[in-house]
Amino acid sequence: MITLTVNGQKHALDIEPETPLLWVLRDELGLTGTKFGCGIAQCGACSVHLNGAITRSCQVQIGDVDGATVLTIEGLSPDGSHPVQRAWIEHDVPQCGYCQSGQIMATVALLQQTPNPSDRDIDDAITNICRCGTYPRIRAAIHRAAALNKR
Amino acid sequence: MTYQPPRIALSRRGFVIAALTAAGGMMLGLRPADAAAGAEVGAWLVIDPDDRITIRVSKSEMGQGVYTSLPMLIAEELHCDWSKVRVEHASANRNLTDHVYGSMGTGGSRTIRSLHAAMQQVGANARMRLITAAAQRWDVPATACTASDGQVHHAATGRAVRFGVLAPAAANVQLSAEPAITPPDQYSFAGKPVARLDTQVKCTGQAQFGIDVRLPDMVYAAVTLCPVPGGTVKSYDASKVTGRRGILAVVPVPNGVAVVADRFWRAKQASLDLPVEWNPGAGAGTNSAMFRAEYRAALDGKLATARNDGDVAQALTQGVLVEANYEVPHLSHAPMEPLNCTAHVRPDGVDVWLGTQNPDMALALAATAAGVAPEKVRVHVCYLGGGFGRRAVNDELIQAVTVAKAVGKPVKLVWTREIDIRHDRYRPQAALRCRASLATDGALNGLHIQTAVGSITRSLGWGSVPDGIERQAVEGLANQPYAVASQRVDCVLKNTHIPVMFWRSVGSSQNAFVVESFIDELAHAAKQDPYQFRRKLLAHRPDFLRVLDLAAEKGDWGKPLPAGKGRGIAIHESFDTIVAQVAEVSVSTHGEVKVDRVVAAVDCGHVVNPRLVEMQIESGVIYGLTAALFDAITIKDGAVEQGNFDTYQIARMADAPRIETYITLSRGARWGGIGEPGTPPVAPAVANAIFAITGKRISSLPISNTDLTSRT
User: Fold this and answer.
1) Burial of B385 (C-beta count, 10 Å sphere; 0-12/13-18/19+)
2) Residue B376: its pLDDT value, please?
3) What whole-number distance in Å separates Cα of residue B251 and Cα of residue B257?
4) CA distance B415 to A39
């Protein structure tokens, strides 16, 4: 059995150790807010926090993270009230919305490391793909979230 | 302008919607669980006793904002409380039997253009029925009553009653005539920058895309498909995977094999390991170099003439002759959500859940694949994780229904990214030749454009295009706006085994690049400023001039820039919307291109929600920029070489320019689309900026194919 604490809830899983964390979250635990986009850690749609670090969950084998703690978009806030989510809503960031869970999780991690990021910091840290091209709004929302965090 | 009555039906019959919400809205998770108490006031909206209003949207939400813009047009007339509005997708099944929603296909930047008056009429119809119900209740003339903020008021007595109370009676009201609708220049709610209705669910992971559907007893499928499009399965050895944990079945599907398992990961791994031999078919042994040569050669063969004004042959002998050739590659749509479909085939009916741009056709495809009458099929349209044209034809649905029929359980079939990119229906490859003759003052004596391009209609099997001229092939060419006495546009449709389809902005995606690059070449040949050169040739088109001037002004045209930086300009009309863009670009001494800023001016005639317009211009620019800078689908041994985002690169944050959008509305008869017109001008604007910086003309896309390390 592999154990995992996801969004504060403990799970024991009988599953092949090479199963990617992404598919454990989506298909075993029903947490479909974390998305499948590429399967090779290129796009970041599957981004979650693994033991506090931003991680592309499609490349994490579950057997390697027995006992780990995972935070997904569903655990970020009960009602969309996390400052990053509030900034996203203020700036009407999403279009199709498919990549946005990953974008938001990546931003939360960025702001934990760099509370007041420059545009260059954002370019370097936010490498998730958005096919709708919401990048200008993501950038504006990151600056807004940084300001909200300061309050 | 006159307003045509809508072609959609406005049901005058009350209807309890419990059964229908199970077919649509519940899967989106937007409609409240107690919705069955609501009353249907026409086929498009349901009003609950607590005043919540569920608006049925007939078009697919793939990011462009129709789940907000169409309800806004209804609300403009309904005078409801906007905070009470919810959205569910209209039922394609009901549309099949009741013909209430018109065409449910989403594409061609057509939603607002085709539905603005109809949606207003839906709102006006419901409002007048609510007013009539209130008037009957109070025994006063309807003309003495008004509706506002979700209530009907009787000013003379100060009485008011909520829509939720009136709805059951309003559902049974018969109107003798349709009420008038508000002209766009008198909008009170539409036209404002209203926040999207789907933002919250898309920031919390709650929005349900097709890939997120979960059903009791559901199993998963992954496919392996013949690497050469059009090829078939020769043989496969299911025994190599059937003993594995969780593997339930191996099922043949068109052009491939599906592996079914209790979990997607198990199905996917087994599909990769399944030994399959293929009959590659007619495409075997082909490659992109062959195709390029064939498309170029086709320009010397027999072409059909799409436009022929004056005597081009004669005109080209007058003045300075300028010639240029351009090439563009196949492109993949690559929506972020890989194609997927969940299907449940039972003796009593078929249910499919997916993101589709074409629910009516999806329903028909599912009926055929399952072998049932169309009336037995229910299509549950989920949020689309991007469409861009790809989800207009649902190959994945046919596979899912085929597998679900074989296994007798609900099946979620998901394409991997590699399947998605290698089995797309691509933007066609094309070769174009342009010739023009310039008078000494820079006027155009003659212009001759020839294109060799794949036919989308033929590729889809939707027709033979007997005259050899496809609208998509010549859009942006045959209607190019510049003044020229003699012009001719020729077209040769040439298809290979690579399937082609609609890719955001379709023919304009390549034709704007060609026309606007060539106009820039002509400006250079005439030794004129590219903006001023365009202005002269557009003197007869004040609509184009206004957009061009706005882009030039806001884009700081002519103002100095540091070495290594430059500007390019382009203008293009597509889907009845004119967009001009000024791109500010840097080219490093190592030849690296960075687009720093794009300023867009847009005339879409009227606007329903300017925030959505800005978002779509930003989106269109970055979508077009990705293709311009990076991408080509190339063929080797008949198969697509690219497979994922490592080889099919997508613009990221660091690649994204600052984008400014300026809206200038000509109003009047123009109702332009907005989902696509932002895309065509960006490639030529960037390519023209690169020329301004380096003196190198980009004659084939992507730009990364051109060595920009040395300057001419």
Assistant:
1) buried
2) 97
3) 6
4) 11
Rounded distance, CA A72 to CA A100, Å? 12
Q: What is the mean pLDDT of residues A77-84?
A: 96
Average pLDDT of chain A to the nearest whole number: 98
| Preferred mutation among B66, B653, B659 to probe A, highest tally of A CBs within 10 A | B653
- Residue A90's H or E segment, with its range, is helix A83-90
Task: Report the pLDDT value the prediction gives residue B710, as an integer from 0 to 100.
Answer: 75
The pLDDT value recorded for residue B712 is 54
Low-confidence ranges of chain B (pLDDT < 70): 1-36, 711-712
Looking at residue B15, its pLDDT comes to 31
* Cβ-defined contact of B386 to A101 (cutoff 8 Å): no
Size of interface A-B (CB pairs under 8 A): 176
Please name the residues between 88 and 147 in chain A that touch chain B, using a CB distance below 8 Å.
Answer: 88-89, 92-101, 104, 122-124, 126-139
Give the integer Cα–Cα distance in Å for B162 and B80: 10
Report residue B669 CA to chain centroid gap: 23
CA distance B60 to chain A (A): 11
Given an 8 Å threshold on Cβ–Cβ distance, is B63 in contact with A97? yes
Q: β-strand B340-346 against B276-279: which pairing, if any?
A: unpaired
With contacts defined as CB-CB under 8 Å, which chain B residues touch A38? 417, 644-645
Coarse DSSP helix, strand, coil percentages of chain A, rounded to the nearest 5 percent: 40, 15, 40
B207 contact residues in A (CB cutoff 8 A): 97
> Does A71 contact B at CB distance below 8 Å?
no
What is the distance between the alpha carbons of residues B76 and B621, in angstroms, rounded to a whole number?
A: 30
Residue B362's φ and ψ, nearest 5 degrees, are -60, -40
List, in sequence order, the alpha helices (H) in B379-529.
395-407, 417-422, 456-460, 471-474, 507-525
- Residue pair B574/B476 in contact (Cβ under 8 Å)? The answer is yes
Taking CB atoms and an 8 Å limit, are B62 and A96 in contact across chains? yes
**B217 touching A, CB under 8 A?**
no
| Chain A residues inside the 8 Å CB shell of B204 | 33, 73-74, 76-77, 79-80, 85
A13–B contact, CB cutoff 8 A: no
Structure tokens at B268: 């996917």
Whole-angstrom Cα distance, residue B64 to residue A1? 44
Asked if B657 and B596 touch (Cβ cutoff 8 Å), the reply is yes
Cβ–Cβ gap B198/A97 under 8 Å? yes
The answer to whether B507 and B428 have CB atoms below 8 angstroms apart is no
Token match 């869970």: residue?
A101
Contacts of A6 in chain B (CB under 8 A): none
pTM above 0.90, yes or no: yes
What b/e sequence results for A65-74 when a residue is b if at least 16 CB atoms lie within 10 Å of its CB, and e otherwise? beebebbbbb
Other C-beta atoms lying within 10 Å of the C-beta of residue B2: 5
Query: Is B336 part of the contact surface with chain A (CB cutoff 8 Å)?
Result: yes
CA distance A29 to chain B (A): 11
User: How long a stretch of residues is chain B?
Assistant: 712
Q: How far is A126 from chain B (nearest CA, A)?
A: 7
DSSP state of B426: B
> B652: part of which helix (H) or strand (E)?
none
Q: At what angle do helices B163-170 and B111-138 cross, to 10 degrees?
A: 90
The answer for B 468-507 residues in CB contact with A (under 8 A) is none
Residue that the structure tokens 């009787």 belong to: B154
Which ranges in B260-329 belong to alpha helices (H)?
264-273, 288-298, 312-315
Contacts of B538 (CB under 8 A, 6+ apart): B481, B482, B483, B544, B545, B548, B571
Q: State the pLDDT at residue B711.
A: 64
